[in-house]
Records
---
Amino acid sequence: MPQRIFITGYGIISCIGNNLEENLTSLLQSAPGLGRLNHVETILRDELLVGEVPKTLDELFILAGITPAEGYSRNALLGMIAAREAAVNSRLELYPELKTGLISATTVGGMDRCELYYNDFLTNDSRNAYIDAYDCADSTEKIAQMLGISDFVTTISTACSSAANAILLGARMIRSGRLDRVLAGGCEALTKFHLLGFNALKILDKEPCKPFDQQRAGINLGEGAAYLVLESDESLKKTGNLPICELVGWGNSCEAFHQTASSPDGIGAYLAMKKALDLSGLSPDDIDYVNAHGTGTDNNDLSEGRAIEKLFGARIPMVSSTKPFTGHTTSAAGSTEAILAILCLQHQVIWPNLNFKDRIPELCFPPVDKLLTDVPVNTVMSNSFGFGGNDTSLIFTKVNANNENSAGNADNV
Amino acid sequence: MAYINGVGLISPQKTAETKEFLSEIMEYKADYLKCIEPLYRPYVDPIQSRRMSRLIKMGIASAKMSLADAACTMPDAIITGTGLGSVEDTEKILGEITKDEMFLNPTPFIQSTYNTISSQVAIQLKCHNYNSTYVHRTFSFESGLIDGLMQIEEQTAANVLVGAIDEMTMNHLQITRRIGHWKMEPVNNLTLRETGTPGALAGEGAAFFVLGNEQHESTYAELKDVATCINLGGSFKPEIFLPDFLEKNGLSAYDIDLVILGVNGDVTCDPIYIQFADQFFPGKALAWYKHLCGEYHTATGFGLYIAANILKRQIYPGILHLNNIKPGKLKHILIYNQFRNVNHSFIVVRGC
């Protein structure tokens, strides 16, 4: 029987909180974190609405528990803060005999410092400490160094599905027997580079984003980091950690349609969700809640909505996008939203799709627009789609609810 | 384990335009070694091609070369490793946003995203299968190979396309020269090891491989296993790791016929390789290749091309010899690479 994959801890920093507790509080109060940009200098500063972590670089050093030094990007510090919270929760420093990996995701990497110092890079030696901090691997290696994780370390970049693919790879590496436990997730800091890039693509909403609404007008970009600890059942026997939930399905598919647009029928989204379901051995009816990618763009929400309709048919599960809370944290979105979906399992709640008024006429379902409490939630799906049509879907279940399913799986195999 | 069933390589050598194996060696005196690009017309629609940056065209072309080589039309997974993605596009945007924020051209922004190569290959092939991109310095390609090996093991894929692709620009060279990555002056690539100076000779390349679950007529070799080891303050212990890794694959150091080292002419870095070879592979044939392609994050793509061809053709070209020892046979090759004594990687390839 293949190794089961359990989630035993996680850590998160976003515009709605510096840790898990603060994020949970904001969600329960339906309090979004969008606001004006304070830490990136751009002429769009007073125009854009973003999900920025309200901390300066110096404050992030304090949260990360390290002495301020040169060579640290905002991206790396955000990553270190969330990774440490997850590592502490799952006591990763114990049991060094377990094979432990770090799989992190980012796309703009240390661009937040690079774009500030680029002219210095070109003309003088004053910012040399930041030259190496610009690539995607820098934040990952700083996290690995801080936590002493050395059995396997890599970085994934599939744009806005990056962190979901980090979780997917972690699960596969455990199942293949290469690793016993994995710290997987992603980090991304807001930069002028991608704010202006998304702006040039004309897909940013200047107002709070309205996913799945007829009047939706685009994305609010956000920043943050989120990491989950994945453990095999063998690892659990050693660590004694209590599983929060089980990762039972994952699927990755490519739209192969357009570099930045989703296909009208959402083929990539459909295939990613379908693969995840098939792997889990669950039926569409078993999914209680879909934390949608739901960026708020015209294109994504219609395409994703159609894919959801195609997969689930007459019985559409509860669906919401939590991007109106956190903004679209791009490479960190996959792990951020996986955690928010898992919180639904833990607390038997469904997070509201804020700012929703009118259903998209082409779709048969509206998202959940009010906080629901005391609802039975046993199985959740988290969708993350990226530029390049890189689509990934993950399925998590409550551990006790899944015991029977898992036994059923074994029979099928 | 998987079979290497197809190879496509664009490099500073004439690897794209000929099926011959290093029959003619390109000599340069340059700041960095630049790829000899093929005519793109057979690989990319000329209208699309005009909008594509160089790295993307090299990626698509080398991917298609490897697929044709393996007679594979639709891979079950597309995986790319790239340390830096499209440097040219990233620099265009940085140039624009540090001057004028108003009129940013979205095309370089779209192409600067690291997963553009994997997704453009998928778009070209209309391939909806698994698609991913690794971006971890000199682990980028190796991570992709590990993912590819797992796809085959999981029996979710019969054919996996795995790429290793990076480019250099003069701007990026100048910036990274500040932190000692490169030689400070143009050097001759063929006498690279005689420079006696710190810093490597930079290079670039686009290599794609088709990994398959079955042996075909086109098969070059077996990709037995791949490992990456990060060295955090001395955590990497090759004397423990290496025998263990080889043993897991039913091998010992004795079985390795040829060791391909990442020697790059940097006097601060090359002793690590030589010490490694002396310690674990005394008396064994040693090869190097970075005088042909230069140093870059995914240079082991060129290394794997070399290993695959040596095993398939059973020839060991003199240009690759690092010592005077002739291998008794050409069955098992170990490729060892390291970056700043932090990122160590190992690839074992076996002749069929």
---
Amino acid sequence: MVLHKYLLIMKTHHEKLSVFLDLSVVLTAFSAYQLHGTGQLEAYYTTIVDIIGDQTMSEILVAFNTAKTEASSDQKQLEQQIRIHLLSNDKLGPITRNIIKMWFIGSWYQLPNIWREAYGKSEKDQTFVVSSIAYTEGLLWPTIDSHPPGAKAPGYGTWANPPKISEV
Amino acid sequence: MHLHPIKTVEDLQFYVATAIQLEHATIPPYLTAMYSIHPGTNKDAYDVMRVVAIEEMLHLTLAANLMNAIGGTPDLTQKGFVPSYPTYLPNGETDFEVGLGKFSLETIDTFLNIERPPLPTNSKKNNATSNLGLLKTQRTKKMLIPTFKSAEGDELHFYSIGEFYKAIGEGITKLTEELGEKNVFVGDPDKQITPEYYYSGGGEIIPIHNKKSALAAIRLISEQGEGHEGGIFDYEGELSHYYRFQQIKLGKYYHKGDEPNDPSGESMPIDWDAVYPIQSNPRIEDFENVLELKKAAIDFNLFYKNFLKQLTNSFNGKPDQLISAVGGMFRIKEMSYQLMRNPINEKEKTTGAPTFEIDLV
């Protein structure tokens, strides 16, 4: 009945979004500030719910809360628990990997066939770019200390200066 | 510090220092409104504001060129150079508030006030105490243009920004007549920002070496802002700032040949809701409970402070530094977006924004 208890706690959209943000921080190693800074939090959350449904999304958030409880603030333990409760889970694993890909690249990737056959083929489960700014806001670019080609250029002639490497 | 009638080159330098500060002071409000717009939406309104903001950067650079031409030192790093928002500008007999706020009708009204053309000369003569366009009125303390102290000790105020530039132009004419052009334009010509360092930024940069080029720069600044002789276009046939902003307010473009206040062009689609709900006139202390946001807001101010230092260097004999300083503006944009997407308070859904409290870092 653990699952039932957590579902009751996370009843509002805002509460769920906040847990999704916490989960994304662990999955991407970017801070909550940086994730908010992409402007994509709500867009990614809504995309997932649209495709897999509110119920499955809640299962992911509950699994994350379980992992957190079992890790009791130990970072290494938390990573281990996320592997156990999310990444190795047949149903939740592919979705979790999709969340990581979405944050870094800005696209939703169609779930694997084996998943679609087991858990249902949503019509919306197609590979697509989530929003008009999702690609340029992908975490891929700050990760490699670059900017998306054709966007966020650093200005005329700045290529003559040494690159500015940011802290991650 | 008070402004005095321009009698010496030092008086003129003080006016030009005020002009540099004034031109810069309009940029943070314009940038804040622009970056509060969700990227990809309100493209027309964004572009209108962008054109104006870039022309203000040209004006800033022209004012710096003028300062160098008359032997002064442009300095964007001194304490108080960036005003504490909200600050105040004169608008006839009253002041209006210039603050940092999101893209909204209220904000566009402020921008219209900033760029408002002066009234035709005959309609304000009754109140004006001198032909300089000065008024004897009670004014707000945090004014961007210092008060003017007359020979009799009266505190007077400029009627508008236009009158302020007119006084600079008249001062240049007077001083060159009295002292000779060579004794006014004593600056090092190598310090001028020339077109090779200033590219596609709201018009051609004018290197200033004499009275003619100085007056041309002042004319460009005044007319890009306020139009030519009360018309909606400047002498280059470009719509002045006031009427550019009015297009956003009225949701309609001007066409060539249109009369003021009556644009006849196609409509400009505006979505006032596609905007980040940023806090107006934010302060670092407002972010006390959101540590990452607070740190990022301080980082922004540090970056901006360094940016102003780079500009100051480029205006003081290292013009090549201007290119990388301008590159820094893209970083300012990205940092602004990040601040504006981060909630200060989940319940009220207000988000952060750059505070521009440069003196605090």
